[in-house]
Design a protein that fits this description.
The structure holds three protein chains of three kinds. By secondary structure, chain A is an alpha+beta fold. In chain A, 38% of the residues lie in helices and 19% in strands. Chain A is elongated. In chain A, β2 and β3 form a beta hairpin. About 3% of the residues of chain A have low confidence. In chain B, α5 runs parallel beside α14. The termini of chain C are far apart. Classes of the chains: A alpha+beta, B mainly alpha, C mainly alpha. Chains A and C meet through α1, α2, α3 and β9 of A and α4, α8, α9, α10 and α11 of C.
């Protein structure tokens, strides 16, 4: 089956490698090694079964005039063999599994703590030691051990970025942890994998693994309050933001807006997507999102602000996109 | 690294030479040899020897459970070790001892004017099952469990009740000498199935309990200096230890009943491997 | 239905209304079996249409054919329908029709109960589907994890339709399970020892036990869910201290054995069909049966492998991983045994056999990917992605459905008297194989590409659109295969070749009667001297070495342990074992929440001496009913009546005690929703009270019969059955009283 899967993967010719088997963390690598072994063994067993089956299908097919086959009721030796062999294989697998579990779950002392809150239908990230709060897009330093602490704010979610490590549920009333250290700079996508309601499909995850200096810079920028808008449309945009119900849900550090219902927008302009991955973060998409959130992502807690005037909408978008 | 003796060596040295247990085991062995003395030189000595081996294995299991360092760990350090000990007393030693019992001896017991009625009463599957389950569940109620840990006498009573009710429990299944309460294979299968349920439940409760239920194992005192081994090297913090104990009860415990079930199941088919010859008079009975 | 109805000889010349009435009022296991098969085929078409709509929505990235809520309702209903209303009742339908025939019985042990089971299934299913007409279909997934099912996350009554619909079908399923067990235990033909039972019958029995012991976990969870939604309790509400994992444990306690409830009968079908078309006995019969039992037993110990991502801790994860891996061993034994059965045989490639061959390959794939889910770290990567969707469809579609299809071709002639057309059958087979693999194999790859399950749409990532489109095309090929099958059925019913008694040269007892069988099933039975009575008829024993191997012991078993109890008592015992799991689930909830008082009232508010007094009344009633039974046994009708009346009086006294206890608590402002302790307390004791009440009603009926002079010594079994139930109600109270009341003294 592994062979079949691999074949399928490459035959697509569309370049995407099978993701959990192409990991960028030691934890993911431990899993991938075990997975490759399991897939290879599975392929062998499947080949054995199919091979035996094809042989008997061909050789033992009914031919006219063939005598009645010998009536064999069983064979003790064979039965012991096909009980004991899988049992031994599985025992070996069990010990490899223990080893892998240890490699995946082992805690590292000086890991960077990041709290991940699953919420309907977006992710909130908090870096308690750095004083940074952001949403949907996680930035991590390459090479540095990380501890993700997961919980659910409303219902159960599950956090999965296939190239990093296995998934772990974000459960209300419980904290789970994930250990990882990304070894390779890049952008890694994932998604919520526990069905969490209407917009479960659009609760995607994007992880940016930055080289350490770049990460430092990102942190310094995120620690700043939002820069006061300078250009006239953005100044107007800030007023629109503060005068509308935006402030009931969103926070922008450095302004009176401090609500924690929706994503923190202090550095919204530095994010690449909006609506937890539903659209790329461009001014056009942002205007569309503000005006028609319920069409873009029906059921999201963000209402459609379709009563905003075109000028206010442009100003608001200019303001938010300027929050780098 | 260790200047004198390591924790492992201290643990290994901690055999429990409790005279009453040694005496009891010796008495059991003597009684067995006495009861089976006549059998050794008869034809069929191989079966007799096998029985002897089974009985010996049962005795050795008791030695491991009650005298070896497992007992030290069970008494003070690890709930999981205590669970392993109980599993040996409930699921391993009694069937082996009963398998070692020669049929004539068992028949003598069944026909005995005094012991016979007791066998018929306590050995009845329903009674045996009820006693066995109550003993197993009862002793794991934290209050009683802790009381047994605190008092050596009570602890001996605990182990004796577990062992005797387990012998009663296995009696109708192993049925040495076709006891009156013997179950036929289908009945024995169901009996084992029902018996496995309480252990499963207990195991599940212990596995998923959020806090340590038995304070002794969570306590900090460490007279033998074994914590570096148990909590350090083995990683068995009190909660993990309790979880492991629950899982031992649950899964290897379940396997024990399953294995016994498999042997009983085999009995079902032994008689029916070959088709019967046509009876002289055909037709329905 | 009319065409099938006309197949029944008794219906010739009857009016349409008569025919309809005969079907509605039937207690004949064969007609009930047909009703099961027809009803679940109907639901299969509905579930299939739901699947097609989902595949259309997923055919291209970011499609807008369906609204997210509609898609979510469709996958919820698709899963729920296929599991509860299709695969399980299809297999139970075959069991209903063929278990009595295969054991040479006239009918099931409890024919009227059997009819009730079917109608509960139908009405439960209709209740579930009424949610569509109401505009609020359930949309929380077939495992409906809390707290998504609770307000404020889910306000629509879809959850109620889901829970109530399944509660109703579950009761019916439990009754079928116990009916099958008692039927096989009590009604086997002479000579048909346990070691000669057809494997399908064995698997029906194992399935029966799994049904009895697995489903009550779901029932208890659904009861608590409904209480949370309607009575203000907070069993699963994390905001109020409830534990969301309690739902998952109870659900998967049911959910994992459910997989085997859907797989074991299919294993049984293969073990019947493959030997017949290979011309050889099943290889390793005892081992195949034993491995089925082992799978059933172990399936009750592995539920938490559905919860590896929950963070249960390394030890629990590892152990559940190990138990789940262990299941692969008996499953592998079965696959190899089927292969060995074919090996060296004389294979006849009928459509039924082809479906079995495809099953072998596809089920092996599903089984191997199943092992991946048992290996904990691999589960962390693959669970809740499309990899798991691929896996369970290879097991349930590639496995169970193919087994069902094999059974359809194999047994259709017995049910209707006509053979299904083989040419259409082969077309059906190839379309199914191609459609199935096109639909579900790419899902492995998509899962590993990171595509989560249960998404109504997906971003346009490399390869995703292409393979989703391929899957959609595969799904429509599958739909075409179903149409071919339905066409085949309708053509063959009218013009199919006449089957005769035994068209396949098979050897189990159902082929020893006419096709379709008469209402009484068998005029005479052949002698049964092995697992293959009809083979023995064709091969007289002289050929095979004669009477040297006489084994008179084989017949002794019939008079063994099972003979001690009457069928009603066995039925009640089976039912009780199911109730034990239900109460066990409620007790687990109580133990979990015993101290979750939130500063409010806790176990210390209970008045122990007072309850002890009323408990004594209940315990005493066990003695009085035992005395009543003994009096009846001696023919002392007056004594029997007196004993019954005393039992009723004591039972009523106990209920009075409970009612006054409740009113006292209510007066103090303590209700079921006060805190988690009170929720668990009232639920547990309330359900026990309800059981006492039911017991009292049956006792009153018995007393009425006794005073009308309608109970004599020969009707003792009914009294025995009621007495056993009453002892059970007392026994449960011993446990509840100890845990809820006496424990506080410690």
């Amino acid at each position: 089956m592994g062979a079949g899967l691999g074949l399928l993967g490459w035959s697509v010719g569309c370049s995407a490698p099978v993701e959990p088997l192409n990991p960028v963390t030691p934890q993911g690598l431990a899993i991938a090694n075990l997975f490759n072994l399991a897939l290879a063994l599975s392929a062998l067993i499947l080949a054995l079964v199919v091979g035996l089956l094809l042989r008997t299908l061909w050789r033992d097919r009914e031919r006219p005039g063939a005598p009645e086959p010998p009536q064999i009721h069983g064979n003790r030796t064979l039965e012991i063999v096909w009980t004991a062999t899988p049992a031994l294989l599985l025992t070996a697998m069990f010990f490899l599994m223990l080893q892998t579990m240890h490699a995946v779950d082992a805690a590292v002392p000086d890991a960077l703590r990041i709290q991940v809150l699953g919420r309907q239908w977006w992710w909130e990230y908090r870096y308690p030691d750095l004083g940074v709060v952001t949403a949907n897009e996680l930035h991590v330093p390459v090479g540095h051990p990380l501890t993700l602490e997961l919980t659910g704010d409303d219902v159960i979610h599950s956090y999965w970025v296939p190239r990093l490590t296995g998934k772990r549920d974000a459960i209300p009333g419980k904290w789970n942890t994930l250990q990882l250290a990304v070894q390779q700079p890049g952008v890694y996508d994932g998604a919520c994998t526990e069905y969490c309601g209407l917009q479960h499909a659009w609760m995607r995850i994007r992880v940016f693994a930055d080289p350490p200096d770049q990460f430092e810079a990102w942190v310094r920028q995120q620690q700043q309050p939002a820069a006061a808008p300078a250009a006239p449309p953005a100044v107007r945009g800030q007023q629109v933001f503060l005068q509308n119900t935006c402030v009931n849900c969103h926070a922008i550090a450095g302004t009176p807006a401090a609500a924690r219902v929706g994503p923190d927008l202090t550095h919204f302009g530095s994010r690449t997507t909006l609506g937890a991955g539903v659209r790329a973060n461009t001014p056009d998409n942002l205007r569309d999102w503000i005006r028609h959130a319920q069409d873009v992502k029906p059921g999201a807690l963000m209402p459609s602000f379709d009563t905003l005037s075109a000028a206010d909408l442009d100003a608001l978008a200019a303001y938010l996109e300027g929050l780098k | 690294m260790e200047p004198t003796v390591s924790a492992g060596q201290r643990l290994w040295a901690s055999w429990n030479w409790e005279p009453s247990i040694i005496g009891g085991l010796l008495a059991l062995a003597t009684a067995y040899i006495g009861g089976t003395r006549t059998g050794w030189r008869r034809p069929g000595a191989r079966a007799v020897a096998l029985r002897g081996l089974a009985f010996l294995a049962g005795l050795l299991t008791l030695v491991v459970a009650l005298l070896s360092p497992l007992d030290t760990l069970a008494d003070r350090y690890l709930f999981s070790a205590h669970m392993a000990q109980h599993l040996l007393l409930l699921l391993v030693a009694p069937p082996l001892l009963l398998l070692g019992l020669p049929a004539p001896l068992a028949r003598g017991l069944i026909r005995h004017p005094l012991l016979g009625p007791i066998e018929r009463g306590l050995g009845h599957p329903a009674v045996a099952l009820a006693l066995y389950t109550s003993a197993m569940l009862g002793w794991h109620v934290p209050r009683f469990y802790e009381a047994a840990l605190a008092s050596a006498q009570l602890h001996a009573v605990e182990h004796l009740t577990l062992l005797t009710t387990a012998v009663l429990f296995w009696w109708p299944v192993i049925q040495p000498g076709a006891a009156s309460a013997a179950l036929d294979p289908l009945g024995a299968l169901l009996y084992l199935l029902v018996a496995s349920a309480p252990g499963t439940l207990l195991g599940a409760v212990l596995t998923f309990a959020a806090a340590p239920l038995y304070p002794t194992y969570a306590a900090a005192d460490d007279p033998l200096g074994l914590h570096p081994l148990t909590r350090g090297a083995w990683g068995l913090t009190p909660l993990v230890d309790q979880q492991l104990g629950g899982l031992l009860m649950w899964v290897p415990g379940g396997l024990g009943y399953l294995l016994a079930g498999g042997l009983v199941f085999r009995r079902l088919f032994v008689a029916a491997a070959e088709p019967e010859p046509l009876p002289v008079a055909e037709g329905r009975e | 239905m009319a065409t099938l109805a006309e197949q029944q000889p008794a219906d010739i010349g009857a009016s349409r209304a008569d025919v309809l009435y005969r079907w509605v009022a039937t207690t004949d296991h064969k007609q009930i079996g047909i009703l099961y098969l027809l009803t679940s085929t109907g639901f299969f078409l509905l579930g299939g249409i739901e699947a097609l709509l989902m595949r259309l929505q997923l055919a291209v990235p970011e499609a807008r054919l369906l609204a997210p809520g509609q898609y979510n309702a469709l996958f919820t209903m698709h899963g729920t329908t296929m599991i509860f209303l299709v695969v399980m009742p299809l297999l139970l339908g075959f069991a209903n029709y063929f278990v009595p025939l295969m054991i040479g019985a006239r009918d099931m042990a409890f024919p009227r109960l059997n009819a009730l089971s079917y109608w509960l299934l139908l009405f439960g299913g209709l209740l579930l589907y009424y949610s569509f007409l109401n505009g609020t279909p359930p949309d929380t997934g077939w495992f409906s994890y809390a707290p998504l099912t609770l307000p404020p996350y889910q306000l629509s009554p879809g959850v109620e339709y889901w829970a109530l619909g399944l509660l109703v079908t579950s009761v019916g399923t439990i009754l079928t399970g116990l009916n099958l067990i008692v039927t096989v235990a009590k009604l086997r033909a002479p000579g048909l020892t346990a070691a000669r039972l057809p494997v399908f019958v064995w698997m029906a029995v194992v399935t029966g036990f799994l049904i009895l012991w697995a489903i009550p976990g779901l029932t208890a969870a659904q009861v608590m869910l409904l209480f949370d939604r309607r009575l203000g309790t907070h069993f699963f509400d994390p905001a109020r201290g409830g534990n969301v994992l309690l739902w998952q444990h109870l659900f998967w306690w049911f959910g994992h054995p459910e997989v085997y409830i859907m797989a074991l009968p299919a294993f049984g079908i293969l073990s019947e069909v493959i030997p017949v078309f290979a011309g050889k006995p099943l290889f390793g019969y005892a081992v195949v049966v034993g491995s089925g039992i082992a799978i059933g037993f172990y399936s009750l110990l592995v539920w938490a492998h559905h919860m590896f991502a929950v963070g249960m801790g390394t030890v629990a994860d590892a152990v559940f991983g190990a138990t789940s891996m262990i299941i692969a061993v008996p499953t592998g034994i079965k696959v190899f045994s089927w292969l060995a059965t074919m090996w060296g045989g004389r294979l006849r490639f009928t459509t039924a056999m082809l479906f079995c061959v495809a099953f072998l390959v596809q089920f092996t794939i599903g089984g191997l990917s199943g092992v991946h889910f048992a290996i904990v770290p691999l589960d962390w990567q693959t669970t809740d992605s499309y990899y798991v969707v691929a896996h369970f469809h290879y097991v349930l579609f590639g496995g169970s459905y193919f087994g069902i299809s094999a059974a359809a071709y194999y047994w259709f002639p017995k049910i209707t008297g006509r053979l299904l057309d083989e040419r259409l059958g082969k077309l059906h087979f190839w379309l199914t194989v191609i459609g199935f693999n096109l639909t579900f194999f790419p899902m492995h790859w998509l899962g590993l590409q990171g595509m989560p399950r249960r998404v109504y749409t997906y971003p346009d990532l490399p390869g995703w659109g292409l393979w989703n489109l391929v899957e959609t095309i595969g799904a429509f090929i599958l739909a075409a295969s179903v149409l071919v099958f339905l066409w085949n059925v309708s053509v063959s019913l009218r013009r199919g070749a006449l089957a005769g008694d035994n068209p396949w040269n098979a050897w189990t007892l159902e082929w020893a009667t006419t096709s379709p069988p008469p209402a009484y099933n068998f005029a005479t039975l052949p002698p049964i001297r092995s697992a293959r009575p009809l083979w023995d008829l064709r091969h007289p024993p002289a050929v095979r070495g004669g009477a040297a191997g006489a084994r008179p012991g084989a017949r002794q078993e019939a008079g063994g342990w099972l003979a001690r109890w009457s069928a009603p008592v066995l039925g009640v015992l089976a039912f009780i074992s199911s109730e034990v799991v239900f109460f066990g689930s409620l007790i687990v909830a109580y133990l979990l929440y015993r101290h979750s008082t939130g500063g409010g009232p806790g176990p210390d508010i209970l008045n122990i001496p007072r309850t002890a007094l009323f408990s004594l009344a209940l315990f005493a009633s066990s003695a009085t009913i035992w005395l009543a039974e003994r009096r009846l046994g001696r023919g002392d009708l007056a004594g029997f009546r007196l004993g019954l009346l005393a039992t009723i009086a004591l039972g009523v006294l106990f209920l009075v005690g409970q009612v006054t206890e409740y009113t006292r608590l209510f007066a103090e402002g303590i209700g079921i929703g006060t805190n988690l302790f009170s929720s668990a307390f009232f639920t547990l004791t309330g359900f026990h009270g309800l059981h006492v009440l039911v017991g009292l009603i049956t006792l009153v009926v018995l007393a009425g019969l006794a005073f009308a002079g309608d109970i004599r010594r020969d009707r003792r079994t009914a009294v025995e059955a009621v007495a056993v139930y009453w002892h059970f109600v007392d026994g449960v109270w011993v446990v509840i009283f100890s845990l809820v009341y006496l424990w506080n003294l410690l």
